[in-house]
Amino acid sequence: MEIKVPHPLLQALKKQRYHLVGNHSAVKRCKWLHDSLVHGRSCYKAKFYGIKSHQCIQMSPAIFYCTQQCLFCWRAQNSDLQIKWSETGTQIWDEPESIVCGSLYAQERILSGYKGNQQADLRKLREALMPRHVAISLAGEPTLYEPLGDLIREFHRKRFTTFLVTNGTNPERLEELKEEPTQLYVSVCAPNQDVFKKACRPQIKNAWTKLNHTLGLLPSFRCPTVIRMTLVRDMNMENVEEYAKLIKKADPTYIETKAYMHVGFSNLRLTFERMPSHRQIREFASDLSDKTGYKILDESVDSRVVLLSKREKTKRLDMN
Ligand code: SF4
Ligand code: SF4
Question: CB of 135 within 8 A of CB of 56?
Fold first, then answer.
């Protein structure tokens, strides 16, 4: 089947070492998979929730499409490459089974590069060849993939745990999801519609209303839910009161407040100075904690992220 995606977008993704899977999915090596194998350092989600970075697959079933063009996004966006959003669409979806098989194969190819690497931890490399967790979050908006619930079920059937990250602009897909992920993330990167339009640059109508609809759905999920905020200096770090109202509506299990990182394609859109310090993220989190009653539970200084929770401790994932 021919991939109906503009050539420059495909080229940009391949240059960024995305391993394309089928017609619209991809796997990419996460920096933390490398750091875990070579330097013994894991991502903050390992610290907060117990995932193992070296056994994690970072993938997306909708690599070419997103309903937003967030200024802080590190991925290649269609406008960075002067491609119209309408040019990136397709309605032909690959089967969940083939995406899972293709993702496993892509991860194996990524790991094969470490077999001759003297610095790689051999025990971890053996474990890495049996991945146990999937972060469905790499790029694009995963809820645009219609059989998303079946994809999650297929990963669970193979005994994977799953994190699903959505920007919340497709509540219908979440409403009809046949299988919940192990943990559901919704990005909330603006306290109100004005900031949302500037920071997240939605490409669909009523995106703010749809995000609010999604927030209203979160209490109906049985799995732990997370509101993730990517914070950019002088852009979306004010109006904590309004953020608190959104949190009240969503009643998430956790909140992650995280600094924008000046990496990837975001360099074309934002300057280095827009990256908040960890101290600023802590101050924001403390203010949010006061206004929501959520407790500050943990933090990662390296990743400039603070975890807030309504529980005394997080639910750890069993990856054995
Ligand atoms: S959970 Fe995310 S950051 Fe951590 S290893 Fe997986 S993809 Fe990387
Ligand atoms: S919603 Fe996520 S993938 Fe889409 S533009 Fe924003 S940061 Fe990038």
Answer: yes
Q: Give the pLDDT of residue 183.
A: 97
The span from the CA of 20 to the CA of 89, in Å, is 16
The protein residue whose alpha carbon is closest to atom 8 in ligand 2 is 73
Q: Which residue has the higher pLDDT, 222 or 85?
A: 222
What is the residue with the minimal CA distance to atom 8 of ligand 1? 30
68 lines ligand 2 (CB under 6 A): yes
Report DSSP letters for 214-248, one per residue: HHHHGGG-SS-EEEEEEE-TTTSSS-HHHHHHHHH
Task: Determine the residue type at 289.
Answer: S
- Pair 298, 249: CB distance under 8 Å: no
Q: Which residues contact 25 (CB under 8 A, 6 or more apart)?
A: 59, 60, 61, 62, 63, 94, 99, 102, 103, 145
Under a CB-based contact definition with an 8 Å cutoff, are residues 33 and 128 in contact?
yes
Per-residue pLDDT for 2 more than 50?
no
Cα(39) to centroid(ligand 1), Å: 15
Q: If DSSP codes are grouped into helix, strand and coil, which group holds residue 48? A: helix
Structure-token pair, residue 210 = 């749809």
Cβ atoms of 28 and 20 within 8 Å: the answer is no
- Dihedral sign, CA of 35, 40, 46, 52? positive
Q: How far is Cα of residue 56 from the mean position of the Cα atoms in its chain?
A: 13
| Residue 1 pLDDT exceeds 50 | no
C-beta separation of 235 from 199 below 8 A: yes
The residue whose CA has the least distance to atom 6 of ligand 2 is 70
- Measured from the alpha carbon of residue 62, the closest ligand is 2
This model's pTM is above 0.90: yes
Question: The sheet that has 161-166: what strands, in order across it?
Answer: 19-21, 25-27, 56-60, 133-136, 161-166, 183-187, 225-231, 254-259, 305-309, 295-300
